[in-house]
Amino acid sequence: MANADPALPDRSAAQLLVDLQSADPSGFSGTVVQSADLGLPGIAGLLGNATGGSGNLTSLIAGSNTARLWYAGEEKMRFSLLGTNSETDVIRNGSDVWIWESKENTGTHLKVPAGMTGKEAAPEASASALTPQQAADAALAAIDGTTKVETTGAAEVAGRDAYELVISPRDTESLVGQVRLAIDAKEHIPLRVDVYAKNTTKPAIRVAFEQITFTVPDDQQFAFNPPPGAKVTEQSVPEDAVKGGGEEAHKAAEEAHKAAREASADKGDFKVVGEGWTSVAVAKGPNLDELTKLTDEAGKQGAEGADASKLAEGVLGTLQPVSGAWGSGKLLSGSLFTVLLTDDGRILAGAVTPEALYKAAAAK
């Protein structure tokens, strides 16, 4: 039971989970900040040099991103990722979905049926729109019999009272120490999600509202008119998705994704070993000799190729040579994830210890 501040009544972990699932605010808007420090200073430095220190790849490893979010229901929302000299927008307004890149002055426009969510209509855009809700959904989806769920009391986020829910993997092979969710005491949506690596006191990943207002945004926030000279690509939603509606389209997409995974597994191209917090993705890729050759060839393809080659060489140079009964390869170790590139052409990755990857690599 959460020992909340006097202003907040106590809530159990089970009650907070129900609160999250039943949250249904009519509208809100706010500023979201996503920050990360994944314990990869060498990689972050290389990416920073390659992008001038302002690239999104760099900030996903060591740095931060800022976004604005407006919400007025599942069919009226807007997400704006703010860059140093650019902005990326994903806007859903009824049947219209816009994905906009200001730097390139290009966009994509889709017409979608009622009931279809923005994620179903434009999954590639939703993947980049990291919000506290999405981070919380990912954490909640990982809860299983090997997970401890508890409360720690109250917090204040973006000037609002919140309860804290703590999710902790019990499996010793997981690199995740705990995930802490700050849940708005009145509206029940996640205001902040912190992901901690084991034995650390500073979050490796934080996604949090810096400012939030629970009023329905004005309709003009969802109106979009391409600027002069813009290049806009029109895309249509598949006919079967339109006929089936949003729910049917979502089920069809899940089935297609599952079939694709199974086909890849049958060919040996991709599979997942284990479950939950300690699952390991295993994919087929070039062996290290082939990867080195590809890097060398890229270096001969003009200035851009040379820059890409130099970056790839730098990244490969930071990897640790490892070997064992499973074979040999190179290891990338971060605070929250580990990647193993084997000499025989496999890529293994997971939020697990190196030993867990070696075990998965041995199970050919």
TrEMBL record:
Q: What SUPFAM superfamilies does the record point to? A: Prokaryotic lipoproteins and lipoprotein localization factors
- Sorted alphabetically, which Gene3D superfamilies does this protein's record hold? Lipoprotein localisation LolA/LolB/LppX
Q: Which InterPro entries match?
A: DUF2092, LolA/LolB/LppX, Sporulation_related
Q: Give the record's keywords alphabetically.
A: Lipoprotein
**What residues form the membrane-spanning segments?**
none
Report the domain of life of the source organism.
Bacteria
> What is the protein's given name?
Outer membrane lipoprotein-sorting protein
